[in-house]
# Entry
Amino acid sequence: MPVDLATTYLGLQLRSPLVASSSPLCKDIGNILRLEDAGASAVVLHSLFEEQIQLESGELDRFLSENAESYSEASSYFPELGSYNLGPEPYLEHLRKARESVDVPVIGSLNGISNGGWIRYAQMMEQAGADALELNIYFLPTDLELTSQKIEDAYFDLVSHIKASIRIPVSVKLGPFFTALGHFATRLDSAGADGLVLFNRFYQPDFDIESLEVAPNLVLSDSDELRLRLHWVALLYNRIRPDLAITGGVHTAEDVVKGVMAGARCTMMTSALLRHGIPYLEKIEEDLIDWMEEHEYESISQMRGSMSAQSVAEPAAFERANYMKVLSSYTLKPASR
Amino acid sequence: MPRTFVTIDGNEAAAYVAHKTNEVIAIYPITPSSPMGEWSDQWSSEGKPNIWGTVPSVVEMQSEGGAAGAVHGSLQAGALTTTFTSSQGLLLMIPNMYKIAGELTPTVFHVAARSLAAHALSIFGDHQDVMACRATGWAMLASNSIQEVMDMALIAQAATLEARVPIIHFFDGFRTSHEVAKLEQLTVEDMKAMLPDELIRAHRERAMNPERPVLRGTAQNPDVYFQAREAVNKYYLAAPAIVQKAMDRFAAIVGRRYHLFDYVGAPDAERVVILMGSGAEAAQEAVEYLVARGEKVGLLKVRLFRPFSVEHFLSALPASVRSLAVLDRTKEPGSAGEPLYQDVLTALMEAQVSGRLPFASMPRVIGGRYGLSSKEFTPAMVKAVLDELAKAQPKNHFTVGIADDVTNSSLDYDPDFSTEDDATIRCLFYGLGADGTVGANKNSVKIIGEETENWAQGYFVYDSKKSGSITISHLRFGPRPIRSSYLISRANFIACHQWSFLERVDMLRWAVPGGTFLLNSPYGPDQVWDHLPRTVQQEIIDRKLKFYVIDAYSVARETGMGTRINTIMQTCFFAISGVLPRDEAIKQIKKAIVKTYGRRGEAVVQKNFAAVDRTLERLHEVQVPGRITSEKDLRPPVPAAAPEFVRNVLGKIIEGNGDALPVSAFPVDGTFPTATAMWEKRNIALEIPVWDEKLCIQCGKCVLVCPHATIRAKIYDPRRLEKAPPTFKHAPARWKDFKDLAYTLQVAPEDCTGCSLCVEACPVKDKAQPKRRAINMEPQAPLRESEAANWDFFFQLPEFDRNKLNQTQVKDLQVLQPLFEFSGACSGCGETPYLKLLTQLFGNRALIANATGCSSIYGGNLPTTPYTVNPEGRGPAWNNSLFEDNAEFGLGMRLAIDQQARYAADLLQKLAPQIGENLVSALLNAGQDTEPGIFEQRARVAELKKKIEELMPEANGSSLLYRDLLAVADALVRKSVWIVGGDGWAYDIDYGGLDHVLASGRDVNVLVLDTEVYSNTGGQCSKATPRAAVAKFAAGGKPAAKKDLALMAVNYGNVYVARVAMGSSDMQTVKAFLEAEKWKGPSLIIAYSHCIAHGYDLRYGLEQQKLAVQTGHWPLFRYNPALAAEGKNPFQLDSKAPSLPLEKYIYNETRYTMLVHSKPEDARRLLAEAQADVMNRWRIYEQMAAMPGAPVEATQGGN
# Structure
């Protein structure tokens, strides 16, 4: 009897836990079709960034206006084009096309900067046919006056408002940097979040020490990054209502197995696909089936949460005791002389 | 469909009808007609159809000559075809115009009439261009107002189809082409009713068609040409009546009635003024005013100037006429009189001779000139003309509007005479180019014109600078139609949008008593008074002005508007003026914001809304104290130390009083001194670079890239520092050979434009704080006085001995005096650093032929000009001929110099025994390949001149030869001829000429400042525009690749060719200039020039240049034929293979990204094609660079 890969996420029926996470890959309809063909059970689109819309709009306005109407021979330096598609419309159109093109659920992703923007764009995505919405709260609290309480309150309010504004399920993609992530997860639960996606990978700039400049640098994830996610999913599993999803560090079938065992309803991938190409997803699925068959698992649901804090024999392994154990087992190599 | 009222300018009014009533439009950009072509192109790109339902084809040609040719062909093939042009552009069309008329082809050319380049170029309005077409056989129909432009455009179209005589429909450049006014817009039904199908069919049936072939364009001989030429006569005889018939049909359809000649004034007028164009509107104001006061005066507006209908002319005038004054807006030196005057005289004389004179006696007729180059023409001047007619011996061939104190042609007029309607509100707004004032005022005129019952008019005046320019908006609105085709000199409302203008411009002199003054002020209502100049305080008190302030910049900052204060000041204007209720005004302003900025995104709209909403709470009325408290006053326009001509003439122009200068103030032949820009301290930078002498490594890169030559370096004897001002900075010179000398990097604080290119070029970073460089931008105001004193001290430090420097090194170049400084170019200009370099290297012996365009405007537009002289008084001799002839113009200079050098050599040989064989031999065999060699030759020439002066008194029979030798001796010193222009010149309009000059083998150097677009006229596509870039006439992204002009020149084999980008490799740029100049044949340097028309912050211009090279868009190379003589490969590739994808470069620029936003699929396709262009070209270059040298001798120029 074939293994059953089916799972549910945000109330959506997924044929497997293999989901394409939000990334530039999904900007192209062709890629979305290829992802579906390769076995992705759902697609999270790249994020609509409200800030980017504002920035592009502001830049265009600045450079079209800056030198206009200031010199007698040239009242402008550019032709006025009919439309610049600078609002959310291109994204929504893409979402519509994606929705029409594939059978798997299409999840919109949104990064807003204003309350009005978050809600307006969430509603637009719902109207454009998104099956669910992922709130990509990509926010670095660089303001030294901003307290953690204020930040958490703002997140809570945001999720509550959005939940009140739309009917499709809403997940929240979080970063790992919360003082009390567990408690915060329960607050998002009470705000109505249908899912939590753990964790966002923040942009980490590098330094160019020759030019003394901060250098933008995109580094793809690897399987080592999975552990932080496993840890928190395993801790939260079955203790809060929202579905849990893992993103970041899922590169192999074994990573998928670990994620599901920790308690994730689905595991999301980008780096592995960027590194190996979209067809790599098929291999992961094949490997997953092989592994499950080899280990005589019947279904994903059977596996889900099996290694969560609630299910394992030694839940302390997820807590401080584990830290001490690891440290004490670590021995320095003798220094060579 | 009912007609609606719209508020548009004359260009749009003409283009609206032209686009609706034609099928093909061939154009070429030229000020002030360019917007007509741009509107047409935009409408066609938006798919807007003509009245027959097809979208007209709009094609940009390489010149107006090309446009006329294309129009001619299209007409011959049966399409309804038109074009738009002005000035020299119309002159280039003349050959085809003869053909078009000779073949009786119906068409209308819409002309924004403009001055011709004679003693000087002028972009402004008069009738010189259309009058130059009088002999072509075209009809000429004048429009006097914006409404008439729309109406006559249609009347002309209808009349030409029936008459088969082509028509120039003209209106005054700027005054009418650019005035925004409320008018009733014609409908498609109006146009259809005016253009009968059978006439259009007839035009098509006359077309060339192989189905019914005919032949036109025969060559005819003496036996028949004459008769055949006369065969057209009946069409010209019939044409006036046909035009009148079209006018009558128009009146029946639309209601507005026109005649070939329209008379206004007293039915029993004795004195009548005759003219055409916008001046007739001012004249009507004057005449109606005078008639209302009982004067027997009148005005005859000439609408159809050609064919001149004597019959209609005579019948239009009252029989009571005793004297006529004919005013021409043109000048024909040496003629018996200007064109309209001559035609009127001819008509009267013919009438008298034939006994048809409708007057009691032959009227006295005088003629005069007015309004050249948009010179103001006011009712006061009209009154002066009418008053002159009343004199017993009125002045003939007069001028009015100027003071001619040389030939005393001018009439005096009373500047206080005014016919302004009290019910019309008159407003003046002084803005900075970049603050959006004009755009907001155009919206205000539209709001008032379209949302109220008022009539409205807007006219906008700009200064001639491309950076920090002052704009003056003239707005009138009121319950009655506005005919005032002149600037406002009695303003009810004056707004100053920039605090700094107060010390430069006496704007309140235009305020009426009890008027209103609105000031954008950093000081609040309680503090502002004491900060005003005395003159401003005095005027506010004397004229009892209501005074309001707002800190618009703080509102703009708080609402994300940056420095755009336009909607803020606009809101204040509406709130104060009360033209609309406040709530309604704000609603309309927001509506205009959505219309203007809506396409650019919601965020832009919202921040403008926020600015409007935050404005009124910050607008305050100032309680005027009633006494003068200020100790400062307006600054003099130029320092007292300036030369007399600068003080007395240029200074007047700077302070805005150029109109008051009399004829005697000016040179008779357009010759002006150089070295004048240094006196015009514009103070436009908010921040200036400040030198950190401890960090600086004295590399000179900042000096090299400074577009305005405002950051300079000198090395000098440190003992001179004894007299230095206290804050003058210096450091030991970091030169191995000059380490005992001092070094200073100094900024001219009042000339800097604050572009920051220098800071970006600085390679040094403070190790503890990398954000700090060896130069850093700091606020100008606190540094102004001290740095100005430092600059003065720096400037008088001696120039370093050029012969001690290595001119191939950027580090040494910084010390060479630039002979091009403080131009009016855009802040951050990418062209001017190359020009500056040219003058540093060769300026002391350069002749520059400069094509019309940006470089001729910032290079030669009054009041002051940037070319200057070295301490010996030497510097570039500069001239601008035209746009379309510059290569040939420069070649002519070379020919003259060579010819004179040959003559000098001949004379030297003849006179060698007297002069001395040694000196003659040295002069004739001088090595002048290096600068020291040239300096030595200069010394020899000086010695020669001295010798000739000694010999001349005793020369007797040889004195003529000596005098000739003295006159041409300077030609013995090698001159450097530079032909300079932009890509529109080199790639398009004068490509044929350039090609010929390159093929001539002569020793000329061509510098193409390639901005990849027609920058000066507003960003039209040229053949240098790259594929995928958006430009005017390439709104969908240019579909074709950029022409490889450099490679085409390489094909000649004997042309030195270099493609350079200073931001990528300054060393390569310098080498190219030196090699080009050294090569004694033709040289071509194509220089990448970043430009405001690319759409990004130009402080990153150098970075973009690097990316242009790294992506392979702009590969650097030098093709040096001299190497071929050495058996080497002359083609040297100076940049590496493309290492970045093209998008990393192009998508930093709005010209490319706007297509990504607008048409993403097209953008992707064009990007792929452009990337392929890059790779294909690179493969060719790589192969060329890899070829071994061939044993071929270089051709060393000459004949």
The longest helix of chain B spans residues 886-915. Chain B touches chain A through 65 residues (CB under 8 Å). Chain B has six domains: 5-209+227-253, 259-411, 425-622, 685-816, 901-972, 1011-1186. Residues 1193-1199 of chain B have pLDDT under 50 and may be disordered.
